[in-house]
Design a protein that fits this description.
By secondary structure, the chain is α/β, with parallel strands linked by helices. The chain has helices at 13-26, 40-46, 50-61, 81-86, 106-110, 125-143, and strands at 2-8, 31-37, 68-78, 93-98, 114-117.
C-alpha cells in the first residue's frame, strides 16, 4: 500500500522529526510519502484573495489526485479510529490533502472520494498533519491486529 500526504504549508522543521517517527513506524505496513508544497504562485495568491489562493491550491493539487483521495476539511465527516482504518481496506493507494491557509475549494473537495475532519476543533496545519500521521499509523495497526491501538 502507498499513502501520500499532501499539504500546502511553509516548511515546519519543528514537527518534521515527530512526523518522521510515524512514517518510520508505518514502513512495515505501507510506503508513506510526505509531500509539502509551497511555491511562489501560492505565496502570491495567498497575499491577494481567498479566491486566488484556492485557485492556486487547485492548480497544484488536481494533478496529484491518485488512488483513493481524501480531503481534510473542518466540515468533513468525523470518524472514529476504526472507521478511519476502514478507509484503508482494499486500497493500493490513498492520497490525503490538507488545504492551505484558506482550506480547500468546494470543487476540489467534490473531486475527492471522501471529505473528513480530524476534529471539530480548529488546528494549526502542523498539528493537524501530526495527528493525521499518528492516525494513519494507528489505522495500519488496527488493520494488522497490532496492539498499538489498545
Amino acid at each position: 500500500m502507498e499513502i501520500l500526504v499532501n499539504s500546502i504549508q511553509k516548511n515546519s522543521d519543528d514537527f518534521n522529526e515527530k512526523i518522521d517517527k510515524y512514517i518510520k513506524m508505518s514502513k512495515k505496513y505501507a510506503k508513506i510519502n510526505d509531500n509539502v508544497i509551497f511555491n511562489d504562485m501560492i505565496a502570491k495568491a495567498q497575499s491577494k484573495t481567498q479566491k486566488d489562493a484556492l485557485i492556486a491550491y487547485d492548480k497544484v493539487y488536481l494533478p496529484k489526485l491518485e488512488g483513493y483521495n481524501v480531503a481534510l476539511d473542518e466540515k468533513g465527516k468525523i470518524l472514529d479510529s476504526y472507521e478511519f482504518a476502514k478507509l484503508f481496506s482494499g486500497k493500493n493507494k490513498i492520497s490525503f490533502f490538507i488545504g492551505g491557509a484558506f482550506g480547500l475549494s468546494d470543487d476540489f473537495k467534490k473531486s475527492t472520494d471522501a471529505v473528513i475532519s480530524l476534529t471539530k476543533l480548529t488546528l494549526s496545519h502542523k498539528i493537524a498533519k501530526l495527528i493525521l500521521f499518528e492516525q494513519i499509523f494507528r489505522a495500519l495497526c488496527i488493520n494488522a491486529n497490532h496492539p498499538y491501538h489498545k
